[in-house]
Amino acid sequence: MKEMEDMISNKKINYSLELLRLILSFWVVLHHCCKYVGKFKGRFHVPTFMIMSFFLYYNTLKSKTIIKIKQRFQRILIPYIIWPVFVFIFNIILVKVFYFTEFQRKLKLKDLVLQLIFGFKYQVVFYYQFNLLFLTIIFTIISILSNNNFILIFQIFLIIAYFFQYSFWNKYIFKKYALVVRIPLESFLELLPFAVAGATLHYLDIIIKFKKNKKFSIFFFLAIIFLILKFDIFVKIKGCFFPGIFLNIGGICIFMLFSLFSFRNKKLVSFLKIITKFTGGIYYVHKACYFVLKKQFFFVKDHTFHGSVLVYLISYIICYFGNKYTYKTKLRFLFN
């Protein structure tokens, strides 16, 4: 999820988006580790992540800079491959030495193969990386082959994706497959519109336009978020995780709202530099942290809010030391 190269514009990092990244990362932890988060109506964390990801990737799609394309694939593939392999080996050791494991069984080679193919067998959160990887491949190929008309093609893909969602073909096509196959493939057409939305926002220079009247824009986006949360404006449909246009509208509004802010206080920026690091790594390790911590702390096992905070903090510490010893290598992408 970390895309620092894409966030650098004129040697400046947009710390409002970095703050949003932190909030979304913590939101993911809450979703997995806190029983109260289910009461919240909008699941905007993953949609907003995907919108931000392709908003930041747009310049690379437009310029077709091979180095930046290569860097993006490295950032996705290194954790996508290495973390599941590490967990697979660690699982075997735990079973043989301590006779226990997070998965209640010894993982087989078949499990590892399925995990690496679909991103959803025992490291289930990697279904997002699976979709991020293939959306990046598809969008990159289209941008190269279609010159500068790729945004139009993206819009066609968006329409097709929503057609499959609202016609329920998306569920019908994949319902016969096992969960390990169905979840990644069914969620692909749900996540695609968010990627298109992110690239389109950058193409339209929408942030610059809204910044011309910042106060009105902030009110406008807050009003839309309130309305879509308070009232059933959009038709709710069944899907995998993130079906329907409701989540796209909400994700866009959240992303746009944070993009309107800027931080100039040096002390605040220094603080943000520290606390907004390692959001990608936290996403990768937080489930394992939860498994270990729930055996030691009842408030983690009970899925409380402060238990989720502890999971986030321990995940941050792990990523801090992991990054410290790997920052000169590409293995740093495991923690960033």
Description:
- The chain is mainly alpha-helical and 336 residues long.
- It has one domain.
- The chain is 71% helix and 1% strand.
- It has 16 helices and 2 strands.
- A two-stranded antiparallel sheet has the order 1-2.
- α2 packs across α3.
- It is globular.
- The N terminus is likely disordered.
**How big a fraction of the residues is strand?**
under 5%
Radius of gyration: 20 Å
SS-based structural class? mainly alpha
The tally of strands reads 2
Q: Please give the count of helices.
A: 16
Mean pLDDT: 91
Low-confidence stretches: 2-11
User: Approximately how much helix is present in the residues?
Assistant: over 70%
Overall morphology: globular
The spatial strand order of the largest sheet comes to 1-2
The H/E string reads: HEEHHHHHHHHHHHHHHH
Largest sheet: 2 strands, antiparallel
Task: Report how far the terminal alpha carbons are from each other.
Answer: 8 Å
Count the domains: 1
Q: What descriptors fit this protein?
A:
336 residues; two-stranded antiparallel ribbon; 71% helix; mainly alpha; 16 helices
Topology, element by element:
Elements: H1 4-7, E1 8-9, E2 12-13, H2 15-33, H3 45-63, H4 66-97, H5 109-118, H6 127-145, H7 150-166, H8 169-174, H9 179-203, H10 206-211, H11 214-230, H12 245-259, H13 266-275, H14 279-293, H15 298-301, H16 305-326
Antiparallel strand pairs: 1-2
